[in-house]
Every structure is written in structure tokens, then in C-alpha cells.
Amino acid sequence: MQLKIRHTIPNQLVLPLGYHHIIQGIIYHSLAEEAGYSGQMHNQGYSAVDMGRCYKLFNFSLLRGKHHVVNRQIIFKDYVEWEVRSPDIYMIRLLENSFRKNGIQYGYQRFEDPELQLENETLEMDSAIIRMCSPICIYSTDKDTKKTYFYSPDEEEFSWQVSDNFVRKYSACYGVSPESGIWIMPLKVGRRDKYVTKYKGFYLSGWLGEYQLTGPRKNLDFLYQTGLGCRNSQGFGMFEIKENEDVY
Length: 248
Fold this sequence. Notes:
The chain has five helices and 17 strands. By secondary structure, the protein is an alpha+beta fold. It is globular and about 45 Å long. About 3% of the residues have low confidence.
């Protein structure tokens, strides 16, 4: 399920360039009205079967709107819009109710009466050309050195890592492994699509751009709701279908 958010900005909305933690905080704070739900989502999430990992099965887009950047701050004017998705319908409805009741607060700036659009769009295809709404982040961490390596779409292992991440998330959500994985291939990804941000003191790297995504329909729909790659609950991996394009 999807919740699309838009609100006007009477003056301006000023945020740090690395604002992912602020949007994530808005989501957790809004869910906190339901006793125990936010804490469970934040601390536990969903556990993958026999894989020792937990996933918060939601994702959100980058902020969209007229803006400029000054001194490592991004300044929005006129309006801002963004989107949250999750296979957890209850979570999305909680967010909608909280935003309608309390508005949305970015740090010290509160905006009342946001425009909210609740949708239940699903993917009914087994191959699609997609455009990233937030960067796809794929990495691995060396067990000995603890160093993290971020993969780029032109590396052979990138597609395998994306598929492996999907299997883990699917297993965490449904308690069983999917019958097959998925396949992703970069189509239009250039140097300008690389995205680097700082999240709570750590640098994260991802990629925007356009890709071909292939797999069983139910797998692609699951990824549409949860996001591609890692760090989905921190604002990575949301994509949209690029319309009127031939699928390769």
C-alpha cells in the first residue's frame, strides 16, 4: 500500500542535505501513537528465516519540490511531496490517520493539513522498466576488517546482491523463501546518478537511474511495496514504473 504526501510551504522548509533520518523519525514518531507498534517496528521489524537479520518492511522516497542548496542545506519552497510504501496495510493507515490529526513536523517546522492520497497499487507484470525514486543501495561488510563496500550497477555482483536481498526480505515477511529470485539490469545509469549521503554519522552510497527489473509478478509487486536493495526504511530503494517504454 502507498501513502502519498504533499503540502504547501508558506515560507520555506530548510533541511540538512542528509535528511533521511528526519523523514524516518517522522514515520516512527507518527506510529508511536499506537502503543508498542513504533517500538516493535524500530527495534524488531521482521526476522528472516534462519538468516539472523531483521527488516523494517517499509520505504520512502526522496523529497520532491522546488529547491536549492546552500551551505549543505536543502531549501524547499512552494510545496514538498513524498511517498511511503509498505506491504503492512495497518502501518500505512496509522500514518495516514496521524498525519491528518497532527500534521507533519520536520524538526521545529510543522505543517498542518497535508494533502494525503492513499493508494493500493500493485504490479501486474513480470518485467518492467523502472526509475528510482530514491537510490538503490547495495553493500557488503567484511567480517574481519568491518569495512563496508558499496556495489555499483556496472559490477556483475550487483544483480546477485539485489536478488539475495530480496530473498531475505521476502522470507522475513512471509516466513517462507520465494520460489525464485529476481534480476535487475542497468539501462540508463550515469555518474550523475550516484548518490552519497550521511546517515547518523555514517556515509551511505546508492544509485538512481533506470533499470530493467524481471521476475515473477508477485516478487516484483513485493519489491514495489518494500523497495530494492538495502536500507529501505532509511529512504533507499523506492522505484516507479516508467510508462510507455518497450520492455527489452
